[in-house]
Amino acid sequence: MGRLTICRTDEVEEGEFATRVVVENTAYAVYRLGDRYYVSIDLCSHGPGSLGEGLIIGDEIECPFHQGRFHIPTGKPTLPPCTDPVQVWTVHLDGDEIWIDPDEPPSHR
Ligand code: FES
Asked: For the chain, what is the domain count?
């Protein structure tokens, strides 16, 4: 099991904004929904949109590029033009540190 630190909880925007974080040359989007944190890949599956720069609407993230949406906990597309899921990872918390296992198999999700 790998361990990749994404950021600290106090670096994640509260409210309607996602947070974009670059770790080891990969951009991730981090979300806070209430007291829970979620991590997906930053790049939209539809094009060049950055989900970390998108708006959180309920439990969905709206891509700022064409306003398609994904379900944050699962990465499933919920509004066209998005049709393919985005990768998400199980979030692990260690104190205020948010980390993921970059090797987590997709079948786990
Ligand atoms: S690039 Fe995200 S909806 Fe098109």
From this structure: 1
Distance 56 CA to ligand 1 centre (A): 15
CA 62 to ligand 1 centroid distance, Å: 9
Token pair, residue 13, equals 């925007």
- Assigned domain for 88 exists: yes
Confidence of residue 107 (pLDDT cuts 50, 70, 90): low
Domain that holds residue 51: 4-104
Render pLDDT for 50-77 as a digit per residue (tens, 0 to 9): 999 999 999 999 999 999 999 999 999 9
- The CATH number covering residue 29 comes to 2.102.10.10
The span from the CA of 58 to the CA of 107, in Å, is: 25
